[in-house]
Amino acid sequence: MALAGRWAKADDRVLLVDADAAGSRLADRLGAIVGADYSPAERGLPSLIVARQHLTLGLLAEHCYALSASAGSLWGLFGPRNPHGARYAAGWLAERADALMTIGRTRRVVVTGRLAHDDSTLAPLMSIAPVVTVLSPLTTLEEAKELLSLCRSTGMMQFDRAQRLLLIEGACPLDDEEVRLESGLRVAAELPAIDDERVLRMHSGRRDRAFSGAIDKCAARIAALLDLHNGDAASDGALADADGDADRDVGRDSALDVVAAAGNGIQPNADGRVSAIHGGD
To answer: Are 41 and 50 in contact (CB under 8 A)?
Structure first.
């Protein structure tokens, strides 16, 4: 949500898709905070599935909520609350990964969903992602090993073309290289803890400066990878350059970033969440 909001504020056109296979309360929580009704039954993945039409940007516009003041800059497409319906909806969306890549040529697409052990529902989305970003608290090497086990069980680690980044929630005493060796993930940034409500409101005050800086750093690294994406791994130098260039454009090629959170904190649930980001014009 924070990454989607960051890009929307930078005048990008963003589609946030909540595809939590275990059932999500993101629409309820966001609606309660901003005083709006974001019922997925009215507009969302359930109504989109019922429409039984080819997935296009025009069709999505009919099933999304506007989440920002700027006209059309941030759309929200929310998944079902019920776990059974949520799993079906996530699988339905994953089967249309190629269509999302096409839509990503004109609007940045951020698909979120939890990761759980031995659940490969979202694997088709991750299989075409040039970037996979994991959000997780991490304080010990043992936790890093457990995170690697989780990622492997979902099928995430089998896709060699994807750059796998880690956004650490909270402080981490470990060296970035230690984390990479034990988890298989490259550290993108450390994300300071912040109140859920402020994240969902997408506020950025003085108290949130460190949080916003970490989001900008992660967004810039993703942007660098999307810019350089040609089927090969981006260089360390390109990622280092991105650290000081948080406002760079992401280029015009379609791309997908998957962000999986493996802890609670700013995410609605304690299990992993996944986001897919397609770079738009």
So the answer is: no
State the CB neighbour count (10 A cutoff) for residue 222: 27
- Work out the angle at residue 232's Cα, subtended by the Cα atoms of residues 229 and 233, and round it to the nearest 5 degrees: 90
Q: What is the Cα Rg of the chain in Å?
A: 17
Nearest Cα neighbor of 182 from 160, 159, 163, 166 is 166
- Could you tell me which of 116, 93, 136, 81 has the C-alpha nearest to residue 256? 93
Q: What total of structural domains would you count in the chain? A: 1
Q: What is the mean pLDDT of residues 5-22?
A: 82
The 10s digit of each residue's pLDDT in 32-91 is: 888 888 888 888 999 999 999 999 988 998 999 988 766 558 899 999 989 889 999 999
CATH number, domain of 63, equals 3.40.50.300
Beta carbons within 8 Å of 11's beta carbon, 6+ residues apart: 70, 73
For residues 189 and 33, what is the distance between their CA atoms, to the nearest angstrom?
27
Is 185 within 8 Å of 150 (Cβ atoms)? no
Q: What is the span of the domain harbouring residue 59?
A: 2-278
How far, in Å, CA of 68 to CA of 70, rounded? 5
- How many alpha carbons fall within 13 Å on the CB side of residue 271? 16
Percent of the chain with pLDDT over 70: 72
Rounded distance between C-alpha atoms, residue 250 and residue 229, angstroms: 10
d(CA 188, CA 205): 23
* pTM of the model as a whole: 0.77
Are residues 168 and 190 in contact, defined by beta-carbon separation less than 8 angstroms?
Answer: yes
Report how far apart, in Å, the C-alpha atoms of 260 and of each of 100, 136, 204 are.
18, 8, 23
* DSSP assigned state of 122: T
